[in-house]
Amino acid sequence: MDTSLTPEQDGVRRALRDLLESRCGPHELRAALDTPSGHDPALWTALAERLGLPGLALPETYGGVGCSVTELALACEETGRALAPSPLLATTVLAAPLIAALGTPAQREELLPRLASGALTAALAVDGTVFATALALTGGNGGDWAGGGRAGGVQARRTTDGWRLYGQADQVLDGHSAGLLVVAARTGGYTRPRTLLFLVPGDAAGVVRARRTTVDATRPQGRVHLRDVDARLLGEEEADVTGALAETGDRAAAVLACEAVGAAGRALERTVEHVGRREQFGRPIGSFQAVKHQLADVYVEVQAARSAAYYAAWAAAHGERAGGLALAQALRAQRTASAEAIQFHGGLGFTWEHEAHLYFKRAAGDELLLGPVHRLRAHAAGTARLFEASGTREVRV
Fold first, then answer.
1. 54 close to 112: Cβ distance less than 8 angstroms
2. Per the CB 3.0–4.6 Å rule, which of 42, 122, 220, 360 could disulfide with 38?
3. Distance from first CA to last CA of the chain, Å, rounded?
């Protein structure tokens, strides 16, 4: 693994940071959060038209840039640093790879160019309480998590004209505003149950959506009700849906690890700036040894998480899986850095006007959606069979 960035990768990061600093400052961020969609459409247009971000990891055949997931992860480190609210995660990291992996040639030709251009946004309609399980990050994703249509899940029923969906998903990333829903639904009844993915336009008859109030307003979620909705099957009925979700989940975990590292790094930067200015007993509090030691520990944790996230992004582009463990380390670093930011900012860190609470809420929201950390680590250890005894001898301590 070459840890140095290529000129292209460095160029993407610099261009994106410049754009976000000019278009997603504290005032623009708060204004975007108050919109019905929870993000600024003008910023999304700029990300698409100026940088091609929605299609960064999609093939050039479908209008994408043709980069790997590594470049997408590095880009998301910058969006995490700015806490930029956008459809990037739901559309580019989750929905588009599933359409590319499972869609028929006609579906890919129809949808991927629109997703790559940013003209169409999409959301993976899986309830947030089972989101990490569906992506095989905290447990097996055999399909039982899809539910039966009445308890937070969605049920699919075959008809003479196609498929009909009934049920709900309560915590769908961008589910209230996405133009296309990729819905995970349970079919087959009790005898031959399985989970399939379906395509549903956001404005289809029978779809009722509403934005939810969440801990992290920078990552908006919606409640999606499906009332006997006409749907198209994504790909073929024999497709390996759970396998595609697991692969997408590992790639998403690597991207989200980089995003969390970006947020943690920025929270630490703001804290260091503050302790260098705030004075106590006639000197900056950053000059006290206890403060130096505490922030040094945070720095080490953030840098270790960044190394793990970069490796996971590289591994995802080379057919290896390391996303879950990297995500666990990144979420822990994000929680530590954001909590210390509030602590060292004192009373200022608790005020609505300051940004510190936004970084803390991002850390809390990410763990609620993707974790918790101990489950991510336990699943990664179980997948690697870390604690299984070897075939020759068992070591007892």
1. no
2. 220
3. 35
pTM of structure:
0.93
Q: Which residue has the tokens 């069979």?
A: 385
Decide: helix, strand or coil at residue 174.
coil
The pLDDT tens digits of the residues spanning 111-140 come to 999 999 999 999 999 988 889 999 999 988
DSSP state of 202: T
Q: Which of 285, 288, 372 is nearest to 331 (CA)?
A: 372
- Write down the residue that tokens 């080379």 correspond to: 318
Q: Which residue bears the tokens 């399980």?
A: 133
Exposed/middle/buried for 40, CB within 10 Å: 0-12, 13-18, 19+?
buried
Q: Per the structure block, which two tokens stand in for 93?
A: 């990291």
**288 to 164, 283, 285, 296, 336: CA distances (angstroms):** 65, 9, 6, 12, 20
Range list of β-strands (E), 188-287: 194-201, 207-211, 221-233, 279-280, 283-284
What proportion of the chain, given as a percentage, has pLDDT over 70? 95
pLDDT at residue 188 above 60? yes
**How far is Cα 385 from Cα 61, in angstroms, rounded to an integer?**
39
DSSP letters of 27-47?
HHHHHHHTSSSSS-HHHHHHH
Length of the chain: 397
For helices 241-277 and 356-370, the axis angle rounded to 10 degrees is 160
Tens of pLDDT, residue by residue over 225-270, are 999 999 999 999 999 999 999 999 999 999 999 999 999 999 999 9
